[in-house]
Structure formats: structure tokens, C-alpha cells
Amino acid sequence: MANTAKWSVVHKLIFYFCFLYFGLNIFPFPLDFIGDLIYNLIEKLWTPIINLLGNIFLGVNEITVRPNGSGDTTFNWLQQLAILIIASLGSMVWLIAARNRANHEKLAYWLRIYLRYYLAATMLSYGLVKVFPLQFGTITTYRLYERLGEMSPMGLLWTFMAYSKGYQLFGGLMEVVAGLLLIFRRTTTLGALLSAGVMLNVFMMNLFFDVPVKIFSFWLMLIGIYLLSADARRLWQFFVLNEPTQAAQEIKVFADKKWFNIGRVVLKLLFIGTTFIAQFYSNWQAAAPISAPKSAIYGPYKVEKFERNNVVSETDTLRLQEVFIDRRGAYDMIYVTNEDGLRKRVNFTLDSTKHIIRMNDYAASITDTTQYAFTYTQPDSETLFLKGKIKNDSIRVAMKKMNPRHFLLTTRGFHWVNEVPFNK
């Protein structure tokens, strides 16, 4: 039987706003699984709107930095402003256009399903890169030698998480379990509760450790809260008033249609296959390099001689003084430092047959894929020579491995019994 309960004006406005706000943020899901083509097209459609708002509020004619590894760019913030404006105005227009409609129960039913599966896919994706320690990786020798005061807040958080694979696994499992619970109608409330709680913690970490995913984590938390809103009264009665509550009454759509029931099961299995099984296998493969043997050139080095364009200078601002060739989780990287404040991370690939290291700037790798090739020689296990070019400069570097150190952070380990706090 169709639900004829009349929604109040406030109820309608909240629904219209949520429908538009979440829809504009999430779209083109699930089409974005096909590839970047649709995503890039949507971004191009947003561009003139973002530039207009940038001109109005910031006095900037064009927002040149596009969404990248940071989800809190000027583009992202202006996009959120645009979505809030569109959702607010659209809600008013929708209210007037649908003023004679009693409710939107069926549309709310489909929106709930859409949000459930989007949040489930996202929680599974974020959870699995923690189950396999790919997001935070492992502590590198660079971090061990680095002074605490030289770390960024985000670097400190990443180091904290990287220290313990067990804690990474726990955090990832919470997100995976929440995602799996959201897939099924009977466990949606539990999944939404877990998702909202987990994402609140993630949002707070992003906020207070300056991690540039604040916008994304915030509205993932909002989706969890929205999914709980349908059960707000029941949850209040059960958890706060300590009163019994009735089972949820959910609208049935195509309940008597065999094709719909079969299709729902097929699509659910397809979703689980593509978002959980496929991603599990993909992350499992991506994590393989973590335990792969390292070349003899890996390690922390002290630069003994730095030569640029055949000139040796102790005051050269480009002069490297420490070089850390390392692997953070599954990703190879080189960190270089000097006393003039240079702190740089570069990605690299190693050709051990030709003795070539190819590097590119990590920070610029999204827009600039320029590679710098260096040949290397290793006369013994403690010495490494590099020779190559950075732009127009010829570079020669002679390095010596630092003496092995036993860091308390990596050697202390776990203790069930502590007679006194070991807090150093």
C-alpha cells in the first residue's frame, strides 16, 4: 500500500536539500568506476562556476589548481560553496513545484539506497588500504633520523599510524565492517552507526592534524548521520529512554516483482564482487612489494662530496648532506636534506641491471612527470656514487652509509607488564 502520510514543509525542505547536496557531491558515482573520462567531464562542467565564484569572493579570474592529492584546495572549497548555493535555491524551487505532493517516500527510498552503496564502496576502499598497510606505509629511516620538530602535523600522524601495523589493521577493519554492513538492509542502521562514528574520528584527525581531506571526511560522516535519521526516534527510545521500540516500517518498491528481486540480488553480488573482492585482490597485489627484498643501495647516507658542474662547494644551497633511499610500505622513495632547510622527497625506480636510478619530484608528479636519470656505482656495501643531471646542472655525489643505529621507537616493542610507565 502506498504511504499517504503528509510531510511537513520543513521535512520536505530538509529532504530536498539533502537530495541535492549529497547528489551533487557524489555524482557521477557509480559511473566513475568506468574511468576518468566522466569524472574529467564533470570537472569541466564545474570549472566556469568555480571561476565565477572565485572572481566574486576572491577576486581571482581563474582557479588554476585542480583537485589532486589534496581534497581541500581552493577549487574544492568553492565547489562546496557552489553546491550549498545550488542545493539551497533548488530546495526552494522544488518546494514550490511540488507543493501539492504529500510526500516523496519512494524517492527517499532510492536516495537511501544510493547513499548506502556509495558510503559502503568508500568505506571498503579506505578500509582495505589500511588492512594492507598501503595508506600509511611503514616507518622509513628518514623519519627515524628526522627531528620531531621538523615534521609536519600530517607527517606526525602518518608516522603514528605507520608505527603499528596492528592499529592500522584495526582501523581498516572497522571501515571494512561498516561498509559490508551497509550493503544489507537489515544491518544498515548498525553500519551507519559504525560509519558515522569512524568517520567522526577520521574527520577530527584530519581537522587537528591538518590533513587535506577535511571536506570529504566531513560529508562522509554526514551521509552516515543521514542514513540514521530514519531511525532517530527508535534509537532515542532504545538508547536514551530505555524503552522498547517497534521494527522499522520501510516502504516496499516492486516487492511483488520477481524481476526486481532477482535483479537486486544480482546487482548486490556484482557490487560486492567489484568493491570488495576485486579491491581486496588489488590491494593484496599492491602490498606485495612491502616484503620484497631490497637492493643493497637502500639505506641512510651521509654525503661526503657534492659536485655541481665540476665545482665542489660547501655553501651550495643545492648541496645534499643526507640521502635516505628507502621504502615506505609498498612505495620506493628518496628523501634528501641539507642544513639550508632543503627537505625533499622524490619517487624513484631502480634499474639494477643498467645501474640507473630514475627520479621525479613527488610534490610535482601530478602535473610534472619529468624524470631525472642518475647512474650509480657501488664499490662496496657502504659507498654509493651518483652521477646525472638536474635540469641544466651536472651533479656528482659521493655518499657513505651512516652507522647503524638502534632506535628506541623500533626496538622497544610491546610489553604486557610495565612496573613503571616507560615514557621517554
Q: Describe the biggest sheet?
A: 8 strands, antiparallel, barrel
Spatially, the strands of the biggest sheet line up as 1-3-4-5-6-7-8-9
- The overall pLDDT, averaged over residues, is 89
Tally of alpha and pi helices? 12
Order of helices and strands: HHHHHHHHHHHEEEEEEEEEH
- Tell me the radius of gyration: 27 Å
How much of the sequence is in beta strands? 15-25%
Distance between the termini: 67 Å
Q: Label the structural class.
A: alpha+beta
Low-confidence spans: none
Care to count the β-strands? 9
Helix content: 40-55%
Shape call: elongated
Structure description:
There is one protein chain. α4 crosses α9. The protein has 424 residues and is of the alpha+beta class. It has helices at residues 9-26, 36-57, 74-97, 105-131, 141-145, 153-163, 165-183, 188-208, 214-229, 232-240, 258-286, 408-411, and strands spanning 299-308, 311-312, 322-328, 331-337, 343-351, 356-361, 372-380, 383-390, 393-401. The chain has 12 helices and 9 strands. The longest helix is centred in the middle third of the chain and has 29 residues, at 258-286.
Secondary-structure map with pairings?
Layout: H1 9-26, H2 36-57, H3 74-97, H4 105-131, H5 141-145, H6 153-163, H7 165-183, H8 188-208, H9 214-229, H10 232-240, H11 258-286, E1 299-308, E2 311-312, E3 322-328, E4 331-337, E5 343-351, E6 356-361, E7 372-380, E8 383-390, E9 393-401, H12 408-411
Antiparallel strand pairs: 1-2, 1-3, 1-9, 3-4, 4-5, 5-6, 6-7, 7-8, 8-9
Nutshell version of this structure?
The chain is an alpha+beta fold and 424 residues long. It has twelve helices and nine strands. Helix content is 48%, strand content 16%.
